[in-house]
Amino acid sequence: MIDRLYDQAGGKDIAVVGLYCDFLAQQEQTTSSMLGAMLKQLAIRRGIPEHIQQEFQKAKRVFGGQGLRLPDLVEIMKKAVAVLPRVFICIDGLDESTPKHRRELLESLREIVRVCANTRLFLTGRPHVGGEIMTCFGNVVRIPISPTPDDIRSYLEMRLESDTDPDVMDDELRADIMRVIPEKVSEM
Amino acid sequence: MPPERQRVTGNVNSFNILTNYNNIVNFNTEIDPEGREILQWLSPLEPQQRHQSVRTNPLDGIGNWVLETKKFRKWSGAEDGCAEQVLFCEGNPGVGKTYLR
C-alpha cells in the first residue's frame, strides 16, 4: 500500500509514513512512540530539520535527554508536515492498539490533519473502531474489505506451494480445491 | 522492480532504509551519530522492519481491487482543501488489510 502510493505519485515529492499496530507490542507502542516513529520517517528525508535538532538540544540541556511529551510531538509533527507538498500517513491495524493509545493517537492526528490540509490519513482496522474514527474526524471515506475470489485463489496457491506433504496432492485434488473453496467462501 | 527499490533493498544496514521515497538523491542523505541519537530520541520503534517483511510476503498484493475503487482514487488524487482527508479500510481479522498494496 505504501509502495503503491509512491508509484501513484510518480515523480511528485510526496512523503509516505507508516505504522503497524501490533497486539504483541502494546507496551512499546505508546501514543508518543507511535507518533515519534512517524516523525522519524519524515525527519530523515533530507537530513533532520533544524527545528527538531533544536528541540533535541533543549531536551538534552533541560531534562538530561528526556523524551518528548505528546503535545510537543504534535507541534513538531505539524511543522515537519507543513513544509512538504503532501504527506500520506498510513496506520495499519488500529484495533490492535490499546483503546487509550488509540484515542490519543486519533486526537493527535486530528489536530495535524486540521492544521495541515496537505495530509491524508490511510487507516485500517476491524469495523468496530470505525465508530471512534467517525467520531474523531467526522468526514471519513470508508471502504469495507472482504476477500474477492481472486484474493482467495492467490492465498490458496500460496498455501499449496508451501504444502509440507506434497505427495498426497495430485492435479485433480488441486483443481477441486481451487474451484470449490473460492466458491464457498464467496457465498459466506 | 524499479532501480530505486533495488537500491533500497541493498542498503539495509544504513539508515537510508528507514523510508523510501521517489527522489533518489534523498537516499544519499547521511545521518551522523548525533542524528541517530535524535532519531532514537524521537522514538525507539522501527516500523520499517515490519514493512520489509510485509512487502516480501507472498500475500502482498492481495486486495489490489481496493486501490482501483472510485473511493480510493478520489481520496488519493484529490486536491487539498476539497476532499475528505481520512480513508478507513475496515475488515475482520485475516481479510488481508495489511497486504493491500
Overview in brief:
The complex is a heterodimer of chains A (188) and B (101). Chain A has 188 residues and is α/β, with parallel strands linked by helices.
What does this structure look like?
The complex is a heterodimer of chains A (188) and B (101). By secondary structure, chain A is an alpha/beta fold. Chain A has two domains: 2-137, Rossmann fold (3-Layer(aba) Sandwich), CATH 3.40.50; 149-187. Chain A contains eight helices and four strands. Chain A has helices spanning 2-9, 31-43, 50-63, 70-82, 99-115, 130-137, 149-161, 171-187, and strands at residues 14-20, 86-92, 119-125, 140-144. Chain A has a three-stranded parallel beta sheet, sandwiched between helices. In chain A, strand 2 (86-92), helix 5 and strand 3 (119-125) form a beta-alpha-beta unit. The longest helix of chain A has 17 residues, at 99-115. In chain A, 36% of the residues are buried. Chain B is mainly α and 101 residues long. Residues 1-28 of chain B have low confidence and may be disordered. The longest helix of chain B has 10 residues, at 33-42. Chain B has helices at 3-9, 33-42, 47-55, 64-68, 70-77, and one strand at 86-90. Chain B has two domains: 1-56, no CATH class; 59-101, no CATH class. In chain B, 39% of the residues lie in helices and 5% in strands. Chain B is extended. Strand 4 of chain A pairs parallel with strand 1 (86-90) of chain B, so a sheet runs across the interface.
What layout of secondary structure does this protein have?
The complex is a heterodimer of chains A (188) and B (101).
Chain A: H1 2-9, E1 14-20, H2 31-43, H3 50-63, H4 70-82, E2 86-92, H5 99-115, E3 119-125, H6 130-137, E4 140-144, H7 149-161, H8 171-187
Helix pairs in contact in A: 2-4, 2-5, 4-5, 5-6, 7-8
Chain B: H1 3-9, H2 33-42, H3 47-55, H4 64-68, H5 70-77, E1 86-90
Count of distinct strands of chain B: 1
* Helical run tally of chain B: 5
User: How helix-rich are the residues of chain B, as a percent range?
Assistant: 25-40%
Helical stretch tally of chain A: 8
CATH homologous superfamily caption of the largest domain in chain A: P-loop containing nucleotide triphosphate hydrolases
Kindly name the structural category of chain A.
alpha/beta
Largest sheet geometry of chain A: 3 strands, parallel
Distance between the amino and carboxyl termini of chain A: 27 Å
Oligomer: heterodimer
CATH architecture assignment of the largest domain in chain A: 3-Layer(aba) Sandwich
The CATH class designation of the largest domain in chain A is: Alpha Beta
Order of helices and strands of chain B: HHHHHE
Task: Report the biggest beta sheet of chain B as strand number plus sense, adding barrel if it closes.
Answer: none
Tally of individual domains of chain B: 2
Strand fraction band of chain B?
under 5%
Mean pLDDT of chain B: 65
> Strand order of the main beta sheet of chain A, please?
1-2-3
